[in-house]
Amino acid sequence: MRSLALGLTIGVAGSVWAQDGPHFVEDEGHVAVFEHDGSNYDERTPAGDVNAAPRQAILGKFLETHGDFYDFVVIFTNFEFDRGERTAFYLGVRNDVRGIGGSLFDHGGSFGSPKRLQGVIDMGPIGQYREEPLSVEISDPGFRRTLGTLAHEVGHRWLARARYLDLDLKGDLLGEAGIHWSYLLSSDASFMYGSQWEPVGGGLYRATEVEARFSPLDLYLMGFLDPEEVPPLVLLRNPDVDPMALPSLGAELRATEEIVTIERILAAEGARDPSPSASQKNFRLGFVFLSEKDVVAAPLDLEAVDRIRTAFVTTFFSLTRGRGFVDTDLLNVIPPDPTATPDTTLALTWLLSRQRGDGHFEDDRRTSLRDTTVALETLDLLGVRGEPLAQGQAWLAAQNPSSVDALARAIAAQPSYILYDEPTTERGI
Fold first, then answer.
1. Strand pairing category for 94-95 and 31-35
2. 90-133: per-residue pLDDT in tens?
3. What average pLDDT does range 61-77 have in this prediction?
4. Which of 301, 394, 398, 421 lies at 20 to 30 Å from 60 by C-alpha?
5. What is the DSSP letter of 159?
6. Residue extents of the structural domains in the chain
7. What is the pTM of this model?
8. 344 burial via Cβ count (<10 Å: 0-12, 13-18, 19+)
């Protein structure tokens, strides 16, 4: 499957999307449904430029209704459009990270995002994910490849542009379009291409695994691993092999090895800033379903997108070795007037009115533990003590969290005054 991260030349902020543009229909669960306006939605304009305008229009309307609270927005459609040979592609909105290759930029204003949005992922029509080797059914092996496609596109936020220093600056780690790893790199079967090249004797190497995970180098550049955790890389050398080729399971080639260490990458790009210890670890993804003009979104399509959305939470956690978290729930809020003074008393009254009889809070029965922990953290922050907090804590203590994430949320929701009262010696780990 081919992918692309598209560089953009953006016009004046606020002038990109037309007033009639895409139409927000409704939120179906945690998927925002829009109706397309019938304009050209191809990946490229007839002139061959990146066709950013329709994506900017969608993001402008989405952020108006849901707020600038998302790091990535993921778009699926129910109609075909020209994507070249790509399955999906990534539009970079912001980069403020140094030391990963590439330049710093901020196109947020043209997408209606004053501060947060980092990128837009266009996954293309949902129909293509029903065809082998992909799938929208959790029980099918192809479902993992569908999630891998989304992981690949998220990875383009940071990957793959890193070079290394030899006698001069070298880009030999890079392959297809200059934003994927070289076909010749033994990349630990990175989603960003390269392969897991295994020596089979006599200078022959075989690709035993492809597009399976984020490699240690990927995770360093993404901000999840320290440089000391990145082992030396093996870059195969064969002048007759095209480094721009796409990975192919079982492929064989003859080559010699060059060892590229993380120190050589740091010498070329500089240290990552922010460092992995200080980098962002929690991300919010918003999911959008764009329906063809005058066509009602089909429930089966929305259910398929929602399965992908839900499964990606645990997938991302696993792929980042438990160091990265994504929240894919929509926040159905209209950004407040920045000149208005928040009425915390009114907000607290509303929050307490939402507490259920047994002490818990919920926006949806499937998210009651998460909703309760957030509500209790808010009550604690506002200094609320007594029965509302005690009831919520009692309900929370009776739950049996089904995941490490849920357990962590429950622990984090313990009120600060309880933590302060703990003894200072003989604590368990």
1. unpaired
2. 999 999 999 999 999 999 999 999 999 999 999 999 999 999 99
3. 96
4. 301
5. -
6. 2-160+278-327, 164-269, 344-420
7. 0.76
8. exposed
